[in-house]
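Thread: pyridoxal-5'-phosphate complex, take 2
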Amino acid sequence: MLHNNLQINEKNHLTFAGLDTVELSQKYNTPLMLLDVAKIRDKMRIYKNGLEKYFTKESFPCYASKALSIREIYRIAKEENIGIDVVSSGEIFTAKSVDFPLEKAFFHGNNKTDFDIEYAIKQGVGFFVVDNVEELLRVDNFSQKFNVKQNILLRITPGIDPHTNAKITTGQVDSKFGTPIETGQAFDIVSKALQLKNVNLKGFHCHVGSQCFDSTAFLDAVEIMLTFIKDLKVTFNYECDVLNLGGGYGVRYVEKDPFINIEENLKLVGKKFDETVKNLNIKKPLVVMEPGRSIVADSGLTLYTCGSFKTIEGYKNYVSIDGGMTDNPRFALYNSSYTIYNASRVNGQDKVVATIAGRCCESGDIIQENVEITKPTRGDIIAVAVTGAYNYSMASNYNRITRPPIVAIENKNDKIIVKRESFEDLIKNEL
Ligand SMILES: *Cc1c(COP(=O)(O)O)cnc(C)c1O
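Output below.
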């Protein structure tokens, strides 16, 4: 199977994290999102142990909240003793609501509003990742107002294009994120930051992309960023404490995607980091990484009920499901690949090739095209694998469809961690 939390039982049903998905869909109804908590913990530990072992003892991962920002994930991150990255006051609020220790939070975003800056300082967010000069000055102003010295990193664009999807590459020079080295602007912003009284420049951040299946982009980033840090030492006699390399290791969505061994990759990047630090003769900074997708994606599975199987003679087959782009907009946004199962009858003689279509009034509301599954009929459960990242966090109420619940599974126990939205929820802000 695609991942080791997916199996087929004696009833020919799909199981997830050890539980029968058809039984779960009867118990909770569909659409339904499942989360495999053991797998999430496992991933967090791989990053934590790898960063401590191959970089420095103080190094740690931050979970990139945007992949799935719900209270339970912050509880888990807190228990696993890792940091988080946040991109909005709403994410800060959510983390704070379960007493996540915000000194281990990194606040990102290319446009933090005055409200965000004030809110984050008041809540005690550990690090601002400052995007640009105007924001830098604003953070300094607010820090002065609240009489604090705010720790910051500067977001630097190292000029790397990791050749993944254009919409998810962020490390190249022309980007809406950060300040580029190539144009000399990175040096200018450092020089400004060093003059300000109420910010403490702890180091730098870069994020080179997403869905990377090897470490090429990270190895380049290490070289470029450490060289930049060396240049700053020479020019400003400045020593960097923290280097945040961002997120971006890939996830296996379909059989033809490779498996990636995160620990081996951390080892490789750590070796390069050690060598480069030695060659350049600089102080070893603590290293942070911010994995999002690779922590939660394969811990998620979405279950739907098939409403119809329809053949357009001479064209194709459509399987209509009771969810769609409102809970998973990724095919509509990026043409993302997914693996689909008929969870009610995984193996079967009667395989068909079909397009899995959502229920929205939008022809682009497709989950996947041309997938091979056992021919479904109305009532069969359709499972979409690897939906833990950027599904629920991107969900909407288009067509007034309510968001599905999330059920967490740990040690074969299932429990609701996010309730299904109600019709009342749909109108609660309307007068
Ligand atoms: C999106 C993002 C991440 C996480 O990326 P993944 O591909 O989900 O690992 C980390 N850091 C920053 C700054 C990001 O924008």
